[in-house]
Design brief:
Length: 167
């Protein structure tokens, strides 16, 4: 798809799309299997064909600082486009501190209905800006690592990097 650019970072190759204002509208790991719904959503958002080089450099530098353990909070502008429920879940994800995890059920309870854990999981999986909105910090109720678009090995690596899980 046009508008998807690759950035080589210490986390590996990532794919990113920016809007014309320079905000990230998609960030995922290379090799992430694009879903048809995501692709059509990105096309409607009209990603910039030639993103601002300063925005690309800033994102790469912050990803590298995060991977090196010297950055805990990203200062990258991003725009999230989704349903009101997805927006609520993504906002809750952003409140999970660096180095901590939450279960799907904990997030559902935080949103007011502990029976929404599956819906929280679907919204978590629809997160268009991986890492910036830390969907990797959500785990199973029993502490098991569960689904991650970048792969479970990468999820484990991110959680270890943050100190959320130990060797």
């Amino acid at each position: 798809m046009n508008g998807i650019h690759r950035i080589d970072s210490l986390l590996g190759l990532v794919q990113v799309a920016f809007n014309v204002e320079g905000a990230v509208i998609y960030l995922g790991f290379s090799g992430h299997e694009f879903r048809v719904a995501l692709m059509s959503k990105l096309a409607r958002l009209e990603p910039a064909m030639s993103p601002d080089p300063a925005a690309v450099t800033s994102l790469r530098d912050q990803l590298n600082a995060y991977a090196a353990g010297s950055l805990k909070v990203f200062q990258i502008p991003f725009r999230l486009h989704g349903s009101s429920f997805e927006q609520r879940v993504w906002t809750a994800l952003q409140r999970i501190p660096f180095g901590e995890t939450r279960s799907y059920g904990q997030l559902a309870s935080e949103l007011g209905d502990p029976n929404l854990s599956r819906a929280v999981g679907r919204a978590n999986g629809a997160n268009p800006v991986s890492i910036l909105v830390p969907c990797h910090r959500v785990i199973g109720a029993n502490g098991a690592l569960t689904g991650y678009a970048g792969g479970l090995a990468r999820k484990e690596r991110l959680l270890r990097l943050e100190g959320a899980i130990r060797s």
